[in-house]
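Hi R.,

Here's the chain you asked about this morning:
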Amino acid sequence: MTPTTNPVVAALPADGWSAGIRVEEGVDYNLPLVGWLVYADGTVRPICIDHHGQQKDPTTLPNFSRLWSA
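And the predicted structure, written out as tokens:
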């Protein structure tokens, strides 16, 4: 295992948070977040689980539109 320069130092729950994924103009699909990853440098990234069971940062998806809390 190689050391990372910015490791994850904590994981927090994301109850009530969702990512908006644009499926067509004016229509978003709401993808629930499962958590937030906190990195050593203080950055925080949202995490969701895709339809293949893989973790993803929804902000990196090409059709990402927003994060929101209910």
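Residues 15 and 43 are 19 Å apart (CA to CA).

Let me know if you need anything else.
M.
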